[in-house]
Every structure is written in structure tokens, then in C-alpha cells.
Prior knowledge:
Residues about 1-5 have low confidence and may be disordered. The chain has one domain (about 1-205): Alpha-Beta Complex (Maf protein). Strands 2-1-3-4-5-6 form a six-stranded mixed beta sheet. The chain is of the alpha/beta class. The chain is about 30% helix and about 20% strand. The longest helix is centred in the N-terminal third of the chain and has 16 residues, at about 60-75. It is globular. The protein has six helices and six strands, in the order αβαβαβαβββαα. α5 (about 185-190) crosses α6 (about 190-205).
Amino acid sequence: xxxxxGKAHRRFGGDTLVVATHNPGKAAEIEDLLGRFAIxxxxxxxxxxxxxxxxxxxFEANAELKxxxxxxxxxKPALADDSGLVVHALGGEPGIYSARWAxxxxxxxxxxxxxxxxxxxxxxxxAFFVAVLALAWPDGHVETFRGEVHGQLVWPPRGTKGFxxxxxxxxxxxxxxxxxxxxxxxxxxxxxxxAFRKLVFKVER
Length: 205
């Protein structure tokens, strides 16, 4: 993959983009970010494409793996996201395993409880969200874009507007968690939004 990333940037010029996710919350957020472009968006879930096993050891590797699988499966360019919560006091966990902490039922109330239990009263509540977007073409060309947003963890969780770990994450400079703020505000400042701005800057040039 690293060799491919060294190639010249490729401009996306199509009219349809596959979003490589089966997560409705993530799909909605990415579709909202793409809303200002004249691009038809279809998810891997809607196309019936299987979710590939995430065998990478980094956010970048897993995002590339998912994007390439969707691009080759659909025969169209695909955008994938690999994201997670990184907690300083837990040595970076749950990190790339953030979704797995929610179990097979994807119960993020359980996942947040697990994070809190692992902290076991540790006063270091620093954490950050990471999102890596990978844009891939069926021929194997792929580019990645990383975004981060830093903050603190709160307990108990607050708000029902986000998804995943949003209700326990308070970004630096905010008084409300990602689960409390309006989606439009979150989409403006989130880790995914930071990565998306990098993608647009590179791809549109």
C-alpha cells in the first residue's frame, strides 16, 4: 500500500461513489459531508457487499482494506472510513478495536461502560477520536487522509444525538459532548470532518 500512496494524487471525477460501510450512523455522517457535491452515494450494505475482515494493525491499513474491497466488489470508486477512540490511560485502547469492544450486537452503551471500567478511577481522562478515510479505485489505487479531534472522557454518557462513543466524548473547547451537540456542528468539527477536508483539498486539486 505504501508504494501506492507515493503515486501522484488522482482526482475523483465520477458521478457515483460507494461508501464502504454497513453502519447507518457512519453512512449518514459521510453522506452529509458529501452533500455539497453532485455525487450519487450508495453504501456497501445497500449493494449487498460483504464486510471484509479487518486484519490491519493501523487505522490506515483497515481503511484501505475496506475501500479496496468495496471498489473491486462494486467496480466503482469507494470511500471507506476506519475510526476509533484512543484513550491515553489505556495505552491507546480501544483504538482500532473500538467497534469490537461493542460486541457482536454493536452495543456501544456496553462499550462505553467497558472503557469506564478499564479506567477504574484513573484521573487521566484524555482521549482522542481518529478517523482515516481511504479513497480507492477498482484498479488498486488508494489514498488515505487522517483526522483527529482531542478532548476528555466524561461519565456518565451525555446525549443521544451521536453514535458510538460520542456521548462520553467532550472535545476540547466544547461544553457539550458529541452526543449532545447538533449533527451539523459535529460534522463541522469532528475527526471525520478533519479527514474529509484533507481529502477534498487533495482530490479536487
